[in-house]
Amino acid sequence: MSQGGAIAHEAAKAQDQGWAWMVLLAAVLLQGLTLGFPSCIGVFFTDLQHDFQASNSETSWFPSIMVAVLHGGGPLCSILVKRFGCRFAVMLGGLLSGVGMVSSSFCKSISQLYLTAGLITGLGSCFSFQAGVTVLGYYFVRWRTLANAIASTGVSLGFTLWPLLSQYLLDEMGWRNTFLIFGGILLNCCVCGAIMRPVQLTSGSPLQSPKPAEEPGRQAEVAQLSNGTSPHPELQQQTRRTACFQLLQKYLAFDIFCQNKGYQIYTIGVTWMMMGFALPHVYLVPYAIQNGVEERRAALLISVIGFINIFIRPLTGLLSGHRVFTGRRIYLFSLAVLLCGLSNFICVISAEFSVLIIYCVILSIAMSGVGALTFQVLMDVVEMDRFSSALGLFTVLESITLLIGPPLTGLLVDITSDFHYVFYNSSFFLISAALFMGLSFCALEKKNKLKEASKVPLDHPSRYQYKEVSTELQSESQSPPAVVYITSV
């Protein structure tokens, strides 16, 4: 057998079997350690507020920055993966996450916590999570959909276990020592990264470390330098502008946003939705404690949401994958967002523990629908060859509203001294986003049908229809989507 054939045989053996399942197990653990981690921050809300003498708005900036960076760092992570590979990105992320939480245990002010736990830990979690999901695209071809569905259960496990562990450690040793222990736990991301060893392509180059493409105009510049001449300053400036524009085009698809109405509606709707989506996760525990619920039972509320997600999310994903819902998943998604918004009114009615349990059950079912459908719908409205760049803009925009939503609501609570405004605000953003997306896509669908009836061809019909994508092994020039499944919901 030739050397190329031997390499191809080894690459085929590495995919969908053997070590690939160890990589999948590492990805499950990574998602629990990274995406599940912010779910426990509400447990520390009251203690941090008391120790730092901070307002609700000031305290809520800490989890907001962490979640926003976790989502918004996607394009930076894609560049890191492209240049150094998935294993390096995961291990670097684990190191940053651990250092961030260890540093947080020594913070003397809430503003220092923004930098350590918010920015550093958030960025580290982003690198570990997104690179960990990306590597599944290399290790799995035939079973890629199943692998991503299994990996996503790590989020639900994290939602279930982190709050319980947090409350136990907080009661036993205080928040500073707890953060110190969390730093050690998050370092396990490095162990997960070490498991993700490179797979070889038929060319013999590591699959996780493709060579970065040369910048436009770079060859001409190199040729001029090799001839002993320097490029003209105007040419240099034009080359830099072109390279910068093409880099933005690659990772932040503004052209798709301007031309694709479906993507435009969906991105605006989800960005608006995120203003209210994270509010219950941040304020539910302090709201319950303020209304007389014991701290341990209050922490249990978040765990209930995560536990139900473990079972409901995969079922929702399987149901939505049925061909009956092809092209209609946006309506299921809007319905799930609407249910999230309506469920918040349960908290306004009563703050009894039994009532809050009912609220968590209903909210968890609705959240499962949102989490399972968010990126399936995005794949429905965007061609797969541009999915990675469309996802980059999508996550950056939603990270902005994830950042400002909780602090603005916290400011309202500080002014009114009424926690009910948390749930009023959340309901307003969720319900209005659901109605906007549902009605807009309905109007867009009618418009497209009228065009078809009048025999006016659509410019880009695949933008509004689901398109099956082959899962055959991609060539070296075509790396898989930078992120297959990203969500904190």
Characterise this structure.
It is found in: Membrane. This protein has 2 domains: about 15-200, Growth Hormone, Chain: A, CATH 1.20.1250.20; about 255-450, Up-down Bundle (Growth Hormone, Chain: A), CATH 1.20.1250.20. With about 500 residues, the chain is mainly alpha-helical. Helices cover about 75% and strands about 0% of the residues.
Total helix count? 20
CATH architecture of the largest domain: Up-down Bundle
Cα gyration radius (Å): 23 Å
**Oligomeric state of the chains present here:** single chain
Helix content: over 70%
Largest sheet: none
Number of DSSP-assigned strands: 0
Shape: globular
Overall pLDDT, averaged?
79
Q: How much strand content do the residues show?
A: under 5%
Total count of domains: 2
- CATH H-level superfamily title of the largest domain: MFS general substrate transporter like domains
Q: Supply the helix-strand structural class.
A: mainly alpha
CATH topology value of the largest domain: Growth Hormone, Chain: A
**Could you list the spans in which at least 5 consecutive residues all have pLDDT below 50?**
1-11, 202-226, 462-479, 481-488
User: Distance between termini?
Assistant: 48 Å
Order of secondary-structure elements? HHHHHHHHHHHHHHHHHHHH
CATH class of the largest domain: Mainly Alpha
